[in-house]
Design brief:
It is a single chain. The protein has five helices and five strands. Strand 3, helix 2 and strand 4 form a beta-alpha-beta unit. It is globular. The protein has helices spanning 23-32, 59-69, 81-86, 88-99, 109-119; strands at 2-5, 8-12, 40-44, 73-77, 103-106. The protein starts with a strand and ends with a helix. A five-stranded mixed beta sheet has the order 1-2-3-4-5, with helices on both faces. This is DUF4180 domain-containing protein. Pfam families: DUF4180 (PF13788). It comes from Amycolatopsis mongoliensis.
Length: 120
């Protein structure tokens, strides 16, 4: 579903569907927005397999890089608390990502709206 939120075109990736983890999955998401006025891709954390959050696999870095290379911002929507507690490296990724503009981890739509409003 595509929505305008705080003057920004946002595509909400459906919660149901195959796991997302690879660079090709990121390219496929970007391709799905072709011709649409979309700046931000919002992906529910449930769409990512547990191995995605394991920093040793490097999946997260490759996925994020591909989305950003195509000029999109990425939002992971949902609770990643268990992954943060399990990994100092992942906790650092979340903290640094949320300080930036290109990739955010948000718990819910209210937090997304606050971040988008502040980014205007």
């Amino acid at each position: 579903m595509i929505d305008q939120r705080h003057g920004t075109g946002v595509w909400f990736v459906p919660a149901e569907g195959p796991d997302l983890a690879t660079e090709q999955d990121a390219v496929d998401l970007v391709g799905a927005t072709y011709g649409q006025a979309v700046d931000v891709l919002v992906v529910p954390v449930e769409r990512f397999p547990a191995r995605f959050f394991d920093m040793h696999t490097k999946l997260i870095g490759h996925f994020f890089s591909k989305i950003v290379q195509y000029g999109f911002r990425l939002v992971l929507l949902g609770d990643v608390g268990g992954h943060v507690e399990a990994s100092t490296a992942f906790r650092d990724v979340v903290r640094e990502s949320n300080r930036g503009r290109n990739v955010w981890f948000v718990a819910d739509l209210a937090e997304l709206d606050a971040r988008l409003a502040a980014a205007r």
